[in-house]
Structures are given as structure tokens and as C-alpha cells.
Amino acid sequence: MSNRTTVTEFLLLGFSDVWELQILHFVVFLVIYLAALMENLLIFMAIAFDHHLHTPMYFFLMNLSVLDLGSISVIVPKSMTNSLMNTRSISYAGCVAQVFFLLFLLGADFSLLTIMAYDRYVAICQPLHYETIMNSRAFVQKAAGAWISGILYSVLHTSNMFALTFCGGNMVDQFFCEVPQLLKLACSESYLSEVGVLAFSVCLVLGCFVFIVVSYVQIFNSVLRIPSEQGRHKAFSTCLPHLTVVSLFVCTGAFAYLKPTSSSPSALDLVVAILYSVLPPIMNPIIYSMRNKEMKAALRRLTGCR
Fold first, then answer.
1. Which tens digits make up the pLDDT trace of 53-74?
2. For a pLDDT cut of 90, what percent of the chain falls above it?
3. Which of 4, 158, 203, 276, CA to CA, is 20 to 30 A from 19?
4. What is the per-residue pLDDT for 52?
């Protein structure tokens, strides 16, 4: 019979048992966190304070920066603290909170990316109707819908996850409370309901991804018919960053949640977790500002650089 002991805390995966390497992990994650903090705050402030960027696309991007900053703040500071304090523990309540907020922020993030694809579709394929479809009330409602959908999804997922009985101990083979790794600890007869929720999640993400792909097929068809090279370049400069962000988010997240879990910690699990949870908050501001002249100009005005 499985050992059904009550779990009061979980032990997270440490990057190393060597003190010097723990300090290195702390420093690396600190640099990453401060970089994400600075980049996303700059994006937020540039959009908030520059009236040239008070459009639906940049409003959604400002929301995306808040979500990215929130998602990295949920997991990285705890991992840094554990390395600095030479501990691996996280309380049961802390793990519940970490799962809830991470799923909420990632769910809202993907909903927002889907809405941003629709925004680009309307702007490029139906430009004459853009101001009517994406008026100030409509885009605020869409952004609020993304946040609310993230909360509802997270409540469903988290409540179902922690209603399970954990028979496999309390060792989580990840540096944060990740759902696939927690499922490994659940009793085999109790996790079927959570597998059902995961299957629902996959269908939801797949539906959104198909919508994004179809939107971009229509967008690229319209862009290629634009007669001027400058017009095509401007359209691509607003679409390609978004497509890059979506691809990075979906590919790494799908790989992490759909691949078979191994019985022991693997470097691949760790790398994939970093790719979908830590890398996007750093890369998204760079991707969105790299090819965007309006964003570059707003950032220069904000920072006083020429």
C-alpha cells in the first residue's frame, strides 16, 4: 500500500550541494531577475507616459509586461532565497500559492497573446473597421477578459491539483512547484481528474494556437499584397515580434507539460522549465522593442538618450 503521509512542506530541486555553486546560482538568478524587472518596467513606463503609444496594441503590450514581471517574481526570488539560505524547502501553502499565481499569470499571458494576434489581424486585414472594433471600451474589456480567464483557469487547476493525495513523498524534481513534477508525487488512483484538467488545458491552448496561426496566415496574405516596401516592412515589424514570442511560449510550455516525466531529475527538465518560465520575461521586452521604431523612440524619450 502507498504511503499516505500528510505533506506539510515540499523539498525543491537544488542546483548544487556545493556552497560556491549555490552562490553562483543566486548571483545568476539575481542578474536575470533585475534585468527582467528593469526591462519590463521600462516598457510599462514608456507606454504609460508616451501619448504616441496609447493604442490597443501597446496597451496589450503594457499588460503583457506586468504579467511577465509577475510570473518571474513568483518563482525566481524563492529559488534565490533557498540558494542563499542553503535550504530546499517550501511550505505546502507556499507551493499552493506558487502554483496558483504561476498558472494565473501564464494563463492570462497566453490569453493576451491570442488577443494581440486578433488585434494585428483587424489592424492589417480590416483597417477601415479597426477603430470601431478595437475602440477604447473594447480593448479594455478584452484585456480584462484575459486576466479573468487566467484567474478562472488557475482556480480550476490549482484546486484540483491540491485535492490530490500525495503518496510519493515530498521531493519535487524542479526548482519551483511545477505541476508535472507534483503529479509524480500523487497517488496513481487520485490523479486521473488532474489528467483530465491537463487534457482540457491542452485543447484550450491548441485552440488558441490554431486561432493565432490562422490569423497570421490571413495577415501575411494581406501584407504581401501591400504595394510599398515600406508598408510591408512596417507591418512585418509589428507582427514578427509577436509571432516570435508566441512560438517561444507555446513550444517550451508544451514540451514541459506534454513530455513524459522521468523518475529522476534531468538537466533537460531544468532547461525547459527555465526556457518557459524565466526566459520569456527577459526576452519579450527585447523582442518587442528590437524591430519597433515607435517603441525605440519612446524608450529614448523616457531615458533621455538620443
1. 888 989 999 999 999 999 999 9
2. 33
3. 276
4. 85
Grid coordinates 509589428 are at which residue? 238
Check: CB of residue 175 under 8 Å from CB of residue 87. Answer: no
Span 286-299, pLDDT tens digits: 888 776 788 888 88
67: left (phi over 0), alpha (psi -120 to 50) or beta: alpha
Contact in structure between 235 and 226 (CB atoms under 8 Å)? yes
Show Cβ contacts of residue 274 under 8 Å, excluding neighbours closer than 6 positions. none
Which H helix or E strand runs over 10? Answer: strand 9-11
| CB 122, CB 130: distance < 8 Å | yes
Which residue from 171, 137, 210, 164 is spatially nearest to 4, judged by alpha carbons?
A: 164
Instruction: Give the separation between CA 254 and CA 276, rounded to whole angstroms.
Output: 9
pTM for the full predicted model: 0.88
Task: Report residue 15 as a C-alpha cell.
Answer: 542546483
Distance CA 84, CA 22 (A): 7
Distance (Å, whole) CA 35 – CA 43? 12
Give residue 1's pLDDT band: very low, low, confident or very high (50, 70, 90): very low
CA–CA separation, 209 and 203 (whole Å) = 10
For 11, the 3-state DSSP assignment is strand
pLDDT of residue 206: 87
Q: For residue 154, what pLDDT is reported? A: 94
Who's near 193: CB < 8 A, 6+ residues apart? 160, 163, 164
Beta bridge partners of 10: 90
Round the CA-based radius of gyration of the chain to a whole number and report it: 21
